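Field reference: sequence -> structure
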Amino acid sequence: MANVTDVVVGKRQILRELKRGNVAEIRIAADAETEYITELIETAKKNGVSYRICSTMNKLAAEYGIEVPSGAVGVLKA
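Structure field:
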């Protein structure tokens, strides 16, 4: 598990950090909205960043110590 400081939460922050070249991997909750998932996957592919579909928004949030359910987490490069 990454430290909370090693991740960005939510689509807007992930897309911003992708443009800066700072994202190593995107983890996406399977129960997020389809358009949300599709946009993140397409953007990850365009930027050559790997992605993983995870279980649920609640489990993803719990894994990273996020207080609210989250559709996606961007793991930052070391």
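Note: The radius of gyration is 11 Å.
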